[in-house]
Amino acid sequence: MIENTVWKEIEAFAAEGAFLYNEPLRDHTTFRVGGEADAFLSVQSGDELKKVLLLCKAQQIPYFVLGNGSNLLVSDKGFRGLIISIGNYMSEIKIEGKRIYVEAGALLGQVAQAAAKNGLTGMEFAAGIPGTVGGAIVMNAGAYDGEMKQIVETVTVMTPEGEIRNFTGAEMEFGYRTSRLKREPGIVLSVTLLLKEGRMTEIREKMSDFALRRREKQPLEYPSAGSTFKRPEGMFAGKLIMDAGLRGYTVGGARVSDKHCGFVINKDGATAEDINTLIKDVQEKVEEKFGVYLEPEVIFVGDFR
């Protein structure tokens, strides 16, 4: 049990309205499920983030850093500790020539639109990804043969001890849906992206094409966390799930999308446990039929059965 005086200490340096008690996390995830966090802080700067990290370390407060919540499944029991949200307050976008300097809380779609407006190409793939830049760096987000690895020049990271570290794109050790930040602790503060000059009409056409393909092939009308599983080498998770006879498979309010079997959707008031059970069932049935283990792309936060 975390002492109330500790929360009061955090609340004292937080901006007005930026610190909340018993905040429902379903309001902060694209799955639209999840119980309450003990406390929720929207940090406004790197200095404030450093303060809260050092306090969490000193008081042994569990914490989780949240972006747009687009790749998370939060337990119905919520989170016992502090959710640190990096979003609107840390979302500056600045363009100089072919470089975009962007804070971690900016949405990928906003950055892609800013790039297009300035005639910069290379980020069209990211226009429809609903995450923040920080989250996209951690998991090397990608779509349509594009990924963050291709455009990242440098990344500024804060360690749990409040120290600042700078990495080049190569030093980030990007791989398929992974980076060094999946293996060692650190919080993305800002990123420098290096793009190329392009024709605005061609950039817009490419973005429109990707958007149309998403609408046609993905169940965007339902809450989800995007692609639920990583792509097995040389295979497609959605096809394996479909071939296992699981199109439309349902647990409670959770369902394997009929439109794209690689998506688990919140079809009708699903709980986090519905979704968790469905994911486990899909893994079990696909492995049983094809000998392939589907690794989730989704990050699980809190306690699950």
Describe the secondary-structure layout.
Layout: H1 4-13, E1 19-24, E2 36-42, H2 46-59, E3 63-66, E4 72-74, E5 79-85, E6 93-96, E7 99-103, H3 108-117, E8 120-121, H4 133-139, E9 142-143, E10 146-147, E11 152-158, E12 164-168, E13 187-194, E14 196-197, H5 200-217, E15 224-227, H6 237-243, E16 250-251, E17 254-256, E18 263-266, H7 272-290, E19 299-301
Parallel strand pairs: 2-5, 3-5, 4-19
Antiparallel strand pairs: 1-2, 6-7, 7-13, 8-14, 9-10, 11-12, 11-13, 15-18, 16-17, 17-18
Strand order of the largest sheet: 6-7-13-11-12
The number of helical runs is 7
Q: What is the CA-atom radius of gyration, in angstroms?
A: 20 Å
Given as residue ranges, the uncertain stretches (5+ residues, pLDDT < 50) are: none
Q: What does the overall shape look like?
A: globular
Number of strand elements: 19
Order of helices and strands: HEEHEEEEEHEHEEEEEEHEHEEEHE
The proportion of residues forming helix, as a percent range, comes to: 25-40%
3D structure, described in words:
With 305 residues, the protein is of the alpha+beta class. The chain is built from seven helices and 19 strands. The chain has helices at 4-13, 46-59, 108-117, 133-139, 200-217, 237-243, 272-290; strands spanning 19-24, 36-42, 63-66, 72-74, 79-85, 93-96, 99-103, 120-121, 142-143, 146-147, 152-158, 164-168, 187-194, 196-197, 224-227, 250-251, 254-256, 263-266, 299-301. The strands form six sheets. The protein has a five-stranded antiparallel sheet, with helices on one face. The model has no long low-confidence stretch (mean pLDDT 95).
